[in-house]
């Protein structure tokens, strides 16, 4: 991933806030996304390492869907790639390609969280809106 890639579509977050007609709901979702990132990634990593197809699919779909809702399009796209690999490889999913993609997801996720915190949550939850 290039440094200049946009990690978060803030337009998507604005649309989410508008959909609920309440900025607090969107802010709460973003806060939950941030707070759940490490657990989501750990669950995905564990499922891949143990070749648990069902758990891996559940975890990757969680990352993909939540990322899309949070406007994290690159992270969602990486999760979609991993989803395809899991579907193709099944119980043989623990490959160098899958593990490399898992690391790319981790890096992208961490950078996404930083961008969300800087722009949206702010140090005391007063954010960029």
UniProtKB/TrEMBL annotation:
Pfam families: Hpt (PF01627). Signal peptide: none annotated. Residues 22-119 form the HPt domain. It comes from the Bacteria. InterPro entries: HPT_dom_sf, Sig_transdc_His_kin_Hpt_dom. This is HPt domain-containing protein. It comes from Arthrobacter mangrovi. The lineage of its organism: Bacteria, Bacillati, Actinomycetota, Actinomycetes, Micrococcales.
